[in-house]
Amino acid sequence: MKRRRPGLFLSPEQCPQAGRERMVMPQPIAMTGSQEENPERPMMRRSIQGEAVFMMGQNPALPVMPERPTLLDFFHQRFSDLAFMHLLQSAKIALDAGQEEKVVMACLLHDISNGALLRTDHGYWGAQMIAPYVSEEISWAVRHHQALRYFPDEAVGYAYPEAYLAFFGPDYQPSEYLKRDHERARNHRWYMTSRLITLYDTYSFQDDWDVDPDQFTDLIGRHFRQPEEGLGFDNSPVAHMWRTMIWPNNFL
Ligand SMILES: [Fe+2]
Ligand SMILES: [Fe+2]
Which CATH number, 1.10.101.10, 1.10.3210.10, 1.20.58.480, 3.30.70.120, labels domain 71-237? Predict the structure, then answer.
């Protein structure tokens, strides 16, 4: 990940709650259905007994985000290595294929929810996260790429992903809502924008290929309305989603 900007870290003493042990409570959704024991009760007990506090604010283990974070700040400082690489690679492949800028932008954003928020139903979450900042078409395409991934379209050369056979097992059947949303998307005027995301999705997990994020700066400038206050602080209906990625370990 040579292209990732190095993060700026603060010492535990420079962060809020200095001098105390900070506990990170796992998110409920990460515990539901898990085999691991839920640490909720023992951690609550420790806090009540004054042994430790729950993390609130800057986690010393995470790089500091700028006061007014931009889209690329989230790429560099918060997204997992895999999401960082995958989003940049799929946008680059679309760019090199000569696709329109809206398609390149949609590719750059398509798995943004997997970056540092939620995997489950990521197309739907991702579309919501970006809706105030991109065209309706780009957000629509991101929303529907999730369903379209399960259904081949020979006409554009898109086959069911090999990886999905391994991920879910060969007998996996997509849920009814995905079948329904795929059907709807097929007949929509923006179908191809979403379908192209799935096409460039398949090839973009190459460990030995570093794509420079800076080459997308101008494109982002044209297709992503960066709020002046920074993502997370613009009082938009989705600002809390971006704040959750800035402070993912906040107890409440
Ligand atoms: Fe995806
Ligand atoms: Fe993807």
Answer: 1.10.3210.10
pLDDT at 233 over 70: yes
Residue 215: name the closest of 127, 105, 131 by CA.
105
Asked if residues 146 and 121 have their Cβ atoms less than 8 Å apart, the reply is yes
Does pLDDT of 2 surpass 90? no
User: Relative to the alpha carbon of 148, which ligand is closest?
Assistant: 1
- pTM, two decimal places: 0.96
CA of 191 to the centre of ligand 2 (A): 17
Residue ranges per domain, the chain?
71-237
Cα(111) to ligand 2 centroid in Å equals 5
Q: How far is CA 176 from CA 150, 161, 173, 183, in A?
A: 12, 19, 9, 11
Residue ranges with CB less than 5 Å from ion ligand 1: 111
- C-alpha 50/C-alpha 4 separation (Å) is 39
